[in-house]
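#struct-queue
[09:14] JT: dropping the first one here, sequence first, then the structure tokens:
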Amino acid sequence: MSKLYSDWLKIDLHIHTDFSRKTKNNDYKGVFSIDSLYTKLKEQDVSIFSLTDHNIINIDAYKEYYEKYNSDTDPLLLAGVELDILGSSTTYHSLLIFNCNDYDNVKAIYDSLEAKYAEKGSDAFNRKLTFDDIICAFDELDYFFIPHAGNTSSIIHAFKDDIAAAQKMLILLQSPMEKVQEKRRQIYNEHFDVRLTEAFRNKEDFAYLEFSDNHNIEKYPCRHMGDQGDHEFYYIKGSKNYETLRLSFIDPKSRIKTTQEFQEIKIPRDYLRELNIKGNMLLTDNNLNFSPHLNVIIGGRSSGKSLMMDILKRSIDVLESEDKYNAAIEGATTTVSSSLDAMPKAVTHLNTDILQINQGAIANYFERNELSSLARKAGKFGEYQIAKTKFNEIQTELDKRISDLHQVYEDIHEIKPDQAIILHNNTIDKLLNPEYHLKMNKDKLIELTFSTEKFDETIKVVEDIEVLISKLKKAPTIDIEEAEETIIEGFVSLLSTLKGKQKDKKLLHEYMTKFVGNAHNIVTSANDKLNAAGKEKALAEKGKQEIINKVKGHFKAFVQLNSSVKSALSLKLEHTELIDLDEDSKLCIELLPEKEIKESILDGIKGYRKDDLYNSLVELLYNETSLKNYGDNSADNFGKKIKSQIKALASCFVKLTDYLEYRDGTTSKSNSPGYNSEKYLKVVLNNPKCGLVIIDQPEDNLGNKFISDQLVELIRKIKFKKQIFLITHNPAIVVYGDAESIIIAENLDNMISYKQVKLEDIESQKRICETLDGGEYIFDNRSRKYNIQRLLQEAGNGKN
């Protein structure tokens, strides 16, 4: 049974029978039989083939095959022949594949061909036709012209004096070419591009194929007579019919794959395979088979398109459905299966990330400033989280610097800076007394040496290393060689020397400390023996030093205050993080505070000095101004006040601004909803981690030019890597996107039905055109992608 969607088929349109001996000597090897042919084709899973003998049709073989086998269940045999055709300089070989798969019509083709040879008086081994002969012989028939283009029997060789004529002929007939090496295809494409309309250049959409050209069925799938190895099959996408070939030759990029290309797109991945709907009063029973590639849902208003999408969501465990469809599917039994499910089930799980975009949702992301979801859908959420930590670091640093400022304020407040420091005249007189006294700053002298504890720490480190080395030498798993033992012993000796030096320094330090202490005692004792005037002078000196220390402490505290203020104000809160989403767009996360740190703190002080936080805090400490709404300027109240002032500033960290920055220098803030939606859609569709895409009407807010120029190409690019479900009214997405599965939703007398169709079915094409506005134009434009009118005009004017 054929699938309900366009699937990949092996084809081989160039297989010879033993009839080739009738027109060329020794042109077939072995014994040909239809039964052997059928067996070999089934073994290789070939779906469409043709028997193409040289300048003759094996009418008996066609008759036998059509009588024995059914094209619905067996490989489809299309009528064909390989002809020698006269070019401008020599002959070339070309296949003719006819829209014919029944004996009576093959017989008619056979008769026309033989009549033409008889008319020209050609003997069996010298049969040649002109292109006009072919047109005349098969005037009313539909066939494909597939010339060789890679050997001495190629159309390129035969028209070497008039390549333009060959190009025009191939374009007019929408012909593919056979036997073209991969390295030559780019050259051919460049020559064909000059003949195409501007819109279709650089598309690499001229079709190239390889067939087995088998001349020995017993060794199939060998090439030729079995002396050139096995043939690597080409795959085409579609159904077993002639129209599949037509669409493949029109759109080879989407519909023709080499064996290697086919293997690349068939890498196992999880996707929705089947959906069954039964037992609902509103819905007809349906059994839908989904393509692993592009599935589109089309239909008129209220036809059930979004209902179908909701049923799909209900069938996947991680997706949420909409309550508004509950009544519509009440009583229905739905089962679903993924490619990894052995049996259908009510709900399935897919082993992949899923992208879901509802109708009109893209523009809302920008309006609600919710672009964080874009990072997740683009597979960049890890980078997004790292970027957010940068803002957390800024906020943490802000809290630290404000806390430091509060601490400095508290330190200054404790030394009571507003209290006067007085030096009495009496003290000055005593300082000027001519009596002498001895001075010695014991603490200053001790500061110039290390503390004993420092030496103890160093000695302990050395002793720990000595213990570890001793353990290492005794370890059972290590063998120390003689040379290594020497190195270790040398290191142990060095440690011993270092320890000895540290002990010597410790001992010297202890002597010095003891000496300073003794000297201080001597000085103190000497001063105690002074007369009364000398003692008073010593006390005055002590008082003076206390005043100096207090003044020094004040200056030092205010220097720290100034430094802390500068540190707080130097923190730059305005910050932007950029995340590359694709080659065209960056996600920008921006912190834009409404107020500066200085302004926020000053707003909490009455009559503050404008733009001068340091002096405003100095005045606050000297009680020359006050905190707003507080009774005093205590350190505790100051801490509460600046925290409340900074709290409003910190709220900007919660409300970060997200926007997109584009390669042209503009941003989503300055562009239209439609333009932003286009960029958003490109980013999320390119997410390599996503294996399933569900989109409801992507054309909403999107321009037609973007859809035709970019969205369709993007869908064509990604659909072989991920499964897509898409509701659309746009025929370009369906036709140019080359949808593998098309589900037509229809509502007749409040009964909703879903019919699955394929692009290569002629009747389905009519139905698609009736459903989509402009569908007929799109179909016609796709099939006539070349500027045929211009080519015909040039031919009529005799131009090359």
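[09:21] JT: and here's the second one, same format:
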Amino acid sequence: MRRALLAALAATAPAAMAHAEEAVLFDGVQVAGIVHDGAKPSALAGEMLARDLSALSGKVPVVSDDLARCSELCIVIGTKGSALVRQVAADTGADLTALDDQWERYERVLLRSRRDPARRYLLIAGSDQRGAIWGMVDLGRALGVSAWEWWADVTPRRVDRLAVDGARTLSDPPSVQYRGIFLNDEDWGLQPWAAKTHEPETGDIGPRTYARIFELMWRLKANLIWPAMHDSTRPFYQIPGNAGAARDHAIIVGTSHAEPMMRNNVREWDEAKRGPFNYFTNRPGMLRYWGERAREVKDFETITTIGLRGKHDSAMEGADTPEQALDATARAIADQRALLAKAQGLAADKVPQALTLYKEVLDIYGAGLDVPEDVTLVWPEDNYGYISQLPTPAERARSGGSGVYYHISYWGRPHDYLWLATTHPALIREQMERAWRLDARKLWVVNVGDIKPGEYLTHYFLDLAFDHRLFAQTPRAHLTAWAEAQFGKEQARRIAGILTHYYDLAFERRPEFIGFSQTEPTRPIRIGDYIRTGGDEAQRRIDAYAALAFRTDAVGRTLPEDRRDAWFQLVGYPVHGAADINRRNLSLDLAALHARQGRPTVNALAAAARAAHQRIVADTAAYNAQNGGKWRGMMDMAPRRLPVFAEPPYPRAEIAAKPGCAVDASDLVFVTGKPSRRTLTVSSNGEPRNWSISLDRGITLLTSMGRLDADNGFEQRVIVRYDGAAAITGGMLACGDRSIEVTARLLPAPAPGAPAALDHIVSLSPDDAGMPADGSWEHVPDLGSRGTALRSSLTRPSADTIAGLDPLAWDFSAATAGEAELRIVAIPVHPLTAANGLRLAVRIDDEAPRILDFETHGRSERWKRNVLANSSAETIALGTLAAGAHRVRVYALDPGFLLDRIDVRFDGAPDYYGAPPVK
């Protein structure tokens, strides 16, 4: 009876379910089967989906390439042209013509068989193999499987029922055609982990490791890999099974900027056998070397890097002049294209090729290198997150298009950042959005280092590459959604807040840079610039990280057991690592300062530094021991053994105790009507003392009493909150048998909308600006020292004067006349294209505009300072500034300028390393 009824319905209903019926993949008893089209990628996709369904349901699905094994409901995965999908289409009347001639798209729909109405298919038909795979990935996402289910132990949770919407879904095409990752600097993480833990039978990054990497790429919808290539790792093509694993997973293989013609020169070029790696003296040998690989990989899907550099990420060997380098590069490209055409039996312009304009290659290109227009130009950033150059209108018209090579991990000068992944998501969004808007959309590759701990940044980069509509979303919103996918909705907003603060603090100074040392040549650590204003700025940073670590632990304690490992990998370890290396180094900087001042805090600060280092050691050991040792060898707390990572000596001072107490209330400066939080410091001169404080109403203390002793270095900082409403003067400190007056300063409220002066500085933030009506400036969310930055329009041409330009404008007041200067603080981007500069025109009141040029060249000392601080500043001396109201106007002379803030600095202003406090 049931079959007859279904047959009657089928006679009158279209093949797709008429009312968007649910596809129930698990009803608590049975789980849907999986049928694939027999192609290796589809078979692997079916097996991956089966693992997901099994983890979710506790039932093991049947996986087959035989449709006859499908029972009442089966998931069908295949390409549109496969025999399996054609069979399902014929059985159901499905129309899949929307997939014709498409790149990586899929259609998913619940269909009913006409021959057997009791049978239903959840069809995932791809326009090509990867299209079908993305359909499988999206199904897993809809069922709640994280992309990091294996790589960060976000274990799928068992459910009682699995269902998805059965309505027809046609996926959008990927925004960027080639989207990939570069495994790099793998010497301290990925390679030793693979060799000793995950794949000891190979003793290297072999096919079993790459299969896991390719599955992760599937879950992130990436289709291109540049394999690991350091000399610690055997070359990709020398390990049997690696190339086959890529082909089986439908992954396109390319090579980095330093590896033309799919070659790994570091381990594959043997000078004893092949001679020098010198195109001028050994061209025949190099052509043989390139030709061998071109023939070996002709049947694989590849994007070939072309061009000519040194043997390993160095300038071309044998070129004595820029002209020689230019000529040799052009001739080498011609030779390489001929070899590719011969190997593949195609015209050269039909073989996918890319030229990465990295380091000196960008200079050669700028000198006039003629690159065949079918070759994709890949624009690099400067290794620190700032794209060096993007295409001009003429370059955007090239048939090969262009793309971007980006870093979230880097080895090199002025300093590595290989340990913790701290590139700000808002910077990634801003830089890749400008690439998108300037049509650099063909190929995006991100250097992910060891993959871990760069999970989120990798995910975000690849999400933007797949779907450019995410640029309309703030980074904070994306991070919140990502946190929900890993840890659930309840804590997602708090987790996003924690990680945003983590990235904010690192944007001011990365954890790896906190020693203020440099590499290549390696320079020792030194007392950092956070001390130069007397130590308060260093202490505020320590406190900020301590508060962040506290919040992290508080959220971690609320998570269920099955998310504890994932939490530690994705949040806990990075936050605590960053907090502890800051506490260690800044505490020692403060100890050195306090020793010179004869303060008894030296030993307590040294003890805090020692404890912080011990926590890094313990946390790293815990990371590598997680999940039964699954990640043993993955995390190294001291990559390259740079000075900043070494355990430092801890000072000890013997300072004679003196009677008496003191209170430093210099920070207690409040603005009428503005709630804020400041600190005061209570200390004794080496004698134990009990203390208590009473302050005016309107002021509250985090703690109002305590004890000064050796454990705290006879010094305690107290957080003071002002409610903004009351008139205040101060209070009294009782310390031992002494009473000391505590004085607070209350500044008058500024004019409505005008910022207040603190510490002789008026800091003008992007939110304070009057925006021009012509759209020449726009807000960039979540970026910069004030949580938003201002960007000059990407579409406006450069100008040499302010004629016809509308300015940004800020109003502020000077309480008294005095010497002042204007510090314009920018985020250190580069000129948008080769045709642009990086200039602002600035006017104070009615004075003539002053033009400031922020462009840096090469690897200058200024560029090094800029990228280590994510900041670039220019100063205008104002002379004696009259008391009263003033106006600052800023005009964009070039597109793509990123303005962080403007500080009006009066005589006596401290020279903060970071942004001055505003509350």
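[09:30] RK: nice, looked through the second one.
[09:31] RK: The chain has five domains: 2-170, 178-473, 503-645, 661-747, 757-906.
[09:31] JT: good to know. The chain is about 30% helix and 20% strand.
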